[in-house]
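Practice problem: predict the structure.
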Amino acid sequence: MAYLFLFLLLALNFAISWSNASYVGRYWSESKQVGGSFRVYMVTGYIMAIAGFTMVYGYILLLVSPYILPLLKVSQETILAVQSLSADLIYLFCVATIIPTGFYIWIRSLKTFFEEKTLSAGLTAGWNTFAQVHNVVNAAREVPNALSRIADALLGKGKKKNDKTIIVVLAILIVAVAIFGGYFTASYIMKKADREYDMFSELEATHPELREE
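Answer:
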């Protein structure tokens, strides 16, 4: 049951990240021309998509690592240490990307709500407020523990130097694969959407008065 819930959670996260990357791609090129807050909004969405895919790939790698790492002739204790360090590093990466970008998206949604005063804008602002408060509170509670575990893995005593090196190298490899996987997935979806959608053409089609004489 726990694995089913985790699978559904990862699938939802993947779908949300896909939606974010696709939305950003629809306006990516145009945002370069428009600039300003619109460009910042697109960049934050892109970063959020990368972080979301990274989290999904990171969890998948952590789940399969007990079946792959024994091929390298490492002990069960080392595998557990690699999983722990990898999980903490991936968590810190996601916190460092999602919370700052989340603040911008949250403030922008509040601004939109106060300007438009519509139900959809209000629901979006409400959800973004809940999500940002939840993320910040969770980070305040968990980040110190994660940092402590990372410091112990890197500097703590009780492990042979060779074992510690193996743990760090394998953990960094897992994190790097997850991050690059997230980056390339988000970039592919974003660029595909960018090629297929032209915001200026769409505006001209729906608002003929915008066409130049």
